[in-house]
Write a structure and sequence with these properties.
Belongs to the isocitrate and isopropylmalate dehydrogenases family. It comes from Methanococcus aeolicus (strain ATCC BAA-1280 / DSM 17508 / OCM 812 / Nankai-3). Keywords: Magnesium, Metal-binding, NAD, Oxidoreductase. It is built from twelve helices and twelve strands. The chain has a ten-stranded mixed sheet, with helices on both faces. A two-stranded antiparallel sheet has the order 6-7. With 343 residues, the protein is α/β, with parallel strands linked by helices. Helix 1 crosses helix 10, helix 8 runs parallel beside helix 9 and helix 11 packs across helix 12. The protein has two domains: 179 residues, Isopropylmalate Dehydrogenase (3-Layer(aba) Sandwich), CATH 3.40.718.10; 151 residues, Isopropylmalate Dehydrogenase, CATH 3.40.718. Helix 7 links the parallel strand 8 and strand 9.
Amino acid sequence: MKIPKICVIEGDGIGKEVIPETVRILKEIGDFEFIYEHAGYECFKRCGDAIPEKTLKTAKECDAILFGAVSTPKLDETERKPYKSPILTLRKELDLYANVRPIHKLDNSDSSNNIDFIIIRENTEGLYSGVEYYDEEKELAISERHISKKGSKRIIKFAFEYAVKHHRKKVSCIHKSNILRITDGLFLNIFNEFKEKYKNEYNIEGNDYLVDATAMYILKSPQMFDVIVTTNLFGDILSDEASGLLGGLGLAPSANIGDNYGLFEPVHGSAPDIAGKGVANPIAAVLSASMMLYYLDMKEKSRLLKDAVKQVLAHKDITPDLGGNLKTKEVSDKIIEELRKIS
């Protein structure tokens, strides 16, 4: 059997702590070829490029990418030397148009608080299109929001197909078309076209909510959601909010999926305030690796890794952000112990 090639980009800050621990756990569960590359703020300071061409080339040659977290330089630094975001660059270069963020409460000690839904956001356009400029004459800063038919169709189709594949019953479109009538109006109209098709063919319900109301519903009644599909910025904000239902960003994994590539990263940032202290929570990175295993068609290993994390959480073997006192490495050791018990 072919050994999967994984491009590993640790990045900055706690990325350099949680990604090595995740690799150590992956070595316990299977055979992989890990190829290490550089990207991020430290890379930018060292060689003047936040994501070198060599990194992009390796990413394109591998079966999947495991990405840590990167810091962003101060604005005055980027004025002297142009800085391009490594993660946004990877998303665009590899056309990773679907960002998948599961909001799944792994600690089911309170069965009345069962939370299990998926946020799927468009990943390459919207307000993250990167088109910004300053009009000196008008003293006006402008950022363009790009919503295309192509981008909308493929992310909405992805969401409905995800629902079919994973036996989900409902897809909710989140928008602000009452104000953003052209951009979100386009997104919602396309959603409504797909809604009819998937209702007729697969009996999947489709509905829509305004984004501001959704922010409240996620906190008040998260069980009303199954699959959420939305635009780039809305999805980014709502998924970070929803991670609070799980215990915080230390438990929030994500996948960036395209037609040809997959990149997997914890939702959290580089957290410079705790970097180097050995207390970063590795679970979001480990769960991202579980998503990577599923993508690589290693579904049983993906399940085992997720089950091991569930056991660690049930036993309260956790880092300080969750109220525990274990170090990053100690949590990883506990996950490995659980893997050896159940595999």
